[in-house]
Amino acid sequence: LVRTVSSLVHTVSSLVRTVSSLVHTVSLVRTVSCQVRTVSSLVRTVSSLVHAVSLVRTVSCQVRTVSSLVRTVSRVRKVSNLVRKVSNLVRTVSNLVRTVSSH
User: Fold this and answer.
1) HSE of 34 in the Cβ direction (CA atoms, 13 Å)?
2) Kind and range of the H or E element at 78?
């Protein structure tokens, strides 16, 4: 009987250790699961940041293009003004020539 009780105590003790180990394993699994969710969230955040950086680069390129277009428009206006002035000069000279030739 003493041997049987001793064997039962040993078996129960072994079961307690197994259950304790299982509880610890479940706790570790929960921790790992939580860490996986955190890493997944971080990956999504990094992906969003990469996309944002790409958008910033695109916008920066578009700003440079717009700036270049503004400079081009300014040059076109200057040339247009010069053409207008030359046209006015030609008209004035033509009028002078007409006036001189009529006298």
Assistant:
1) 6
2) helix 2-102
The string of pLDDT tens digits covering residues 15-39 is 999 999 999 999 999 999 999 999 9
Mean pLDDT rounded to a whole number for the chain: 95
With cut-offs at 50, 70 and 90, classify the pLDDT of residue 41.
very high
The pTM score is: 0.53
Q: What CA–CA distance (Å, rounded) separates 17 from 10?
A: 11
Report the distance separating Cα 31 and Cα 36, nearest Å: 9
21 token code pair: 């180990």
Exposed e or buried b per residue across 27-50, where buried means at least 16 C-beta atoms within 10 angstroms of its C-beta: eeeeeeeeeeeeeeeeeeeeeeee
